Amino acid sequence: MKKFRIIILSALTFGVTSVFAQQEFQFGNYTHNPYLFNPAAGGLTDFTQIDLGYRNQHISSDGNPVTMYLSGHTQLYLKKNKGAAKVFNPDGVSMYTPPLNSVGKFKQIVGGRVINDGIGPFQKTGIMATYAVHLPLTKKLSFGAGLGLGWNNIGINPSKVVVQSEADDILQGFGARWNQNNLDLQAGLVVYTDRFTFSFSGTQLLGSKFNFSDAYFISKLNSHWLIYSSYKIKAGENFTVEPFMMARAVKNSPFSADLGAKVHYNYLWLGAQYRTSQSFVISLGLNFLKNLYLSYAFEYSAKATRVSTAGTHEIQLGIYLGKSRKAAAKTIPPVENTEEPETSGE
What is the CATH number of domain 2-329? Predict the structure, then answer.
């Protein structure tokens, strides 16, 4: 029975503290959606953006980590800026180039996300709503600040826990604590031009605790601090190069950073990045069907202690939405004819 306690407690410590507290979810496709980790980074363009993502780590291992999310954000078009909404892809081409950031104007952005993160019997589900304000510093530079308030549920699925004895006192200690809830808080700042983005954000700022057993286990969700930056460099008529970096700092965890770049060719892109955790990520994507985009990323760990040689697979499907063509046409005032009528010259 002592051996069982060691096994289950080690699993709990790894599953909740390491996966959920020490490191929140992380993706290889975050350059396309920095809003995932910064509530201020929504509404950078003039279009509503909705993303659906799926990440499957170490797929050849039982109980491997799996993360899924749905996120969306949009500008509020009030009276003072009701004409700000634009038609996305006005030419209606099937393959399109992605939009640039829009700058030099006041914005209010609302958004939300739902994320489920799991490993083995451990599950974390989070729901968050966000609000941000963006202000123009100059005609070509904008600043934004945002807050996110949410709810988390962290739990253990007892049907996935294999025990030697149902009467074991560690299970009795859990009682009704298989699932617990807490509040979550995020905050962030962003500075950007049409091609440059700098983001600073903090997640899990409340440092909430989960107590699954008075006798055996208490977990704390440590705060995460993240810096992200990217810059799109025009490299010809059809090419754009986008170098980017991400730095993460978490209490009681090693500092980590990503360095990478994406090459855009019209409606296609290819990316590569290196993580200081000795992982490599390759990604590719396509903008298609007038306003959809699809991205795939593969991550491989170079560590000798890697859990699986199968690597990590990630897929992201997104959509840009703008004002309808009919609505846009109604906002365009008719052009008055100011030319004087021609005379016969008589």
Answer: 2.40.160.40
